[in-house]
Amino acid sequence: MQFSQVYGLESIKKKLIASVKANRLAHALLFLGPEGSGKLALASALTQYVYCSNPSDTDSCGECSSCRKITSLTHPDVHYSFPHTGGADGISDDFILQWRELVTKNKYFNITNWAAITAKDENKSPNLNIKEVRKILTKLSLKSYEGEAKSLILWMPEYLQGQSNALLKLIEEPPQKTYFSLVAENSDALLATITSRTQLIKVPKYTEAETQQFLIDKYALDPQKAEQIAYLSEGNFNKAVELVESVEDNYAEMFRDWMLACYSNNLGKVSTLADSMHKLGRVQLQYFLTNGLSILRESMLYQTIDNYQIKAEKGQQDFIKKFSTTLNASCIEKSYAQINEVIYHIQRNANAKIAIFNLSLQLRYNFIRNK
Ligand SMILES: [Zn+2]
After folding, report:
1. Which of 70, 178, 303, 305 has the fewest CB atoms within 10 Å distance of its CB?
2. Spacing, Cα 62 to ligand 1 middle (Å)
3. Is 3-205's fold the same as 247-370's?
4. Is 3-205 assigned to CATH 3.40.50.12780?
5. pLDDT at residue number 121
6. What value does the mean pLDDT take over residues 294-308?
7. CA of 60 to the centre of ligand 1 (A)
8. Fold (CATH) for 247-370
9. Which BP terms does GO give this entry (predicted)?
10. Residue 349: CB partners within 8 Å, gap ≥ 6?
11. CA distances to 32, 114, 196, 327 from 155, in Å
């Protein structure tokens, strides 16, 4: 991965590049950032920059043999270590194929995603065991294959068990030209001896604008949809990916049915729909409601601006037009505010089922008064 493929984080990239060029890159770095931030991406881009045979002032070339091997996670001098579910006898290398497949596709996953791929038995929790630590020591004490430098990218050092003194000692007194990149999420769970032996690179969570751009690039989402999902992702690319990949296509239809049920005072239908919405789960429900808000917003704009071009998929346009001609402006505005408030409460763990049913009653009341 090149630096240019890592979203945002420009000032951190600049500092890292400057220290490589000045030949004063710390031999042990701790990339610490929340879930779904660019910490693993940064560590990968930095490693590639260090090994690249033709780097520019701002990035690795992406084309030389080293770059290609690092991109495919097959460079013989760049080692990866990560929690695994192989029990006391397992090592990370037992899972290297799954690791390569996941990391080349997505660098924002969390430990739960990873464990779900590797654990055959759900009760097995991932860890970095003593056998893995010994394996790391062996790998790093061997002569390097290609260049002079050897690297270890250690993902989630939080999962190192107590007996990792040998590794700590190695980090403290590393062999010549050996680089450690530790990629961690939770500083409280890290051994103090790790934080004291590494240089900290704090990786902030992503902004909404960066998340929106990421979604547009990766999934070719339209900007409005990307904005909604970015808002709900709270700067977590992993959450954004999960939202996009699990979003139902029928939300617009479901929203329309719900509005019609409220309008026609069909409480039986309202109750059934409230059940289905509740079953979506908290995050999807927020997305569903946010999507509904954009339908109301478009209705308001269509109502007030002459020849307004509705920003929505074709299938939704008729509904938006109908909505805006059936209901008056203050009714739509009021409904918008009420839905918005429920999103706020659901984010803060309100009982979703009750909140949705109450909201339905409020909307029904708005619509009756409108008639
Ligand atoms: Zn290169």
Report:
1. 305
2. 5
3. no
4. no
5. 63
6. 91
7. 5
8. Zinc Finger, Delta Prime; domain 3 (1.20.272)
9. DNA-templated DNA replication
10. 282
11. 11, 11, 18, 54
